[in-house]
Amino acid sequence: DIQMTQSPSSLSASVGDRVTITCRASQNIYMFLNWYQQKSGKAPKLLIYGASNLQTGVLPRFSGSGSGTDFTLTISSLQPEDFAIYYCQQSYSAPWTFGQGTKVEI
Amino acid sequence: EVQLVESGGGLVQPGRSLRLSCAASGFTFEDYAIHWVRQVPGKGLEWVCGISGNSANIVYADSVKGRFTISRDNAKNSVYLQMNSLREADMALYYCVKDLGPMVRAVILENWGQGTLVTVSS
Lengths: 106, 122
What we know:
heterodimer; A: mainly beta; 6-stranded mixed sheet; 4-stranded antiparallel sheet; globular; B: mainly beta
């Protein structure tokens, strides 16, 4: 199975900050990497797919980059509604595995 | 608007069975793969299984292979998860999730239901 490791596990930031979350795969997954946002008590929401493609309806302050084994999710200017847990997920091969999550806190 | 509504969760004893259902609406159901993803409250996400739009392609996580069976009825816009020989480790919130595409391949989990809670305890 492909292991996905996110860093940091949690971070504290302020409104307006630029935030970067990293996801590392245990093997080359090319650009088969997706990002999700999960707010407290809610289902996850797809933000980015294929490493850098913004899902329809997601605001452009979210962006993704990377290929191979190293990927990043960037929030250019953190807004109050962005405080949540963010997960990466590889879509290269079954079983489709997730990172452990990064909690973005105030 | 895409909607996925799970049902069938509840309390069950270890070793017993449970059947989850997912009713879908707002899209052409047979054109998309559907998955089950579970989450222990307060913990991370685990992909469980997926079924292609035409049911020809089904994939399971090793943790449930041989115990869980996913199926779909395109006439009823529904997906089912038959869970047998349940263990305490299966206790979680189970989400029904629509894929971005028709196959269980390069899985992108586009739309999520609100989940149904499965509790396994004696």
